[in-house]
Amino acid sequence: MSDLAVIGLVAAVLVFLVLMEMLAAAVPLLIVVTLVPPAERPALAACLAAADSRRRLRLWPALRVAAQARRETVRQR
Predict the structure, then answer these.
(1) For helices 3-35 and 41-51, angle between their N-to-C axes, nearest 10 degrees
(2) pLDDT-derived band of residue 53, with 50, 70 and 90 as boundaries?
(3) Phi/psi class of residue 10: alpha, beta or left (left: φ > 0; alpha: ψ in -120 to 50)?
(4) CA nearest 24: which of 67, 71, 63?
(5) Does the chain have fewer CB atoms within 10 Å around its N or its C terminus?
(6) What is the pTM for the complete model shown?
(7) How many domains does the structure of the chain reveal?
């Protein structure tokens, strides 16, 4: 492999990783904006904050907790 090919491969992997990180950061916001009614957004935000206090939100565990909280809220009505 030539030096140019190696540099191109490293650049492609770096661009891919940056794009995946940006997508991972944007997906939770898109889900909330498109699928959660405006009246319930503060409650979901509080639930997500309580479920994951780390700096970076882990999407799937937090969404599972939010879905469980939503089911409990619906059952109580």
Answers:
(1) 130
(2) low
(3) alpha
(4) 63
(5) C
(6) 0.46
(7) 1
